[in-house]
Amino acid sequence: MSEEIKHFKFASCTDIGPSYSVNQDSLEYNQGNKSFVLADGVGGHQGGEIASHFIVKNLMAGQSIIGQQITNPAMLKQVLKLLVIQADSQLKDLGITKELDMGTTVVTGLVVGQQLHYTYVGDSRLYLLRNNLLAQLTTDDTLKQQVMDSTQLFNSPVNIAVPSNIVTQALGLTSPINVHYGYLNLKPGDILLCSTDGLHDVLSLAQLQKQLNTLTTLQQCADDLVAKALKLGSRDNISVLLMEYPQPLYESLVNKVKQCLA
User: CATH number for the domain including 221?
Assistant: First the structure.
């Protein structure tokens, strides 16, 4: 049986951005259960805000129960995907009741033992920083990503011309929903970044990596990422959620000395 991760740090920051009167992003985390949900609402003035909050509350409650009862990885995959599918169905019912078009992207995470289990729909993202290198763990459900996958040419004129904000699926709006799932064996020193497109549409992978590698505190880094996105011209709601599996103190001190000597 894998050893339980006892210390897992969280920090978050969200900003309405310069162009909106409401923040349709929503996020929540639970340090005790080591779980999180981040959502980016889509729809009318009110619909997207309602949708993202509804999904975050729904999935956080479900993941809290699942994390306490299920440890088998294969079963976790099935149950976590089913949890999102059920939440999607309930959101569609809510939209009918309120007579609103409402939807949301979502990315979730639950740490069981030393494994992170995550699900996602839409273009909200999850990244991993390990050994100072940043990798994107999720793949966007967007028209731009579909075109890139079909052409295999990232910087082709066709890819550049496709808008990045056209999602191909979102909870509450599309049927059927294809819930993506992944898992990761965590290592001490890992940092996870969740973001809505208000951040990652204006900061490149290299820029995100640079910011994460210069962090002083987790909260300061979250604040700085949002400030950087605003400075670079983000017009959208911006949300950042950071999670850290800290290294043992002696390893952290050794790494800081190495950085100073480099």
Answer: 3.60.40.10
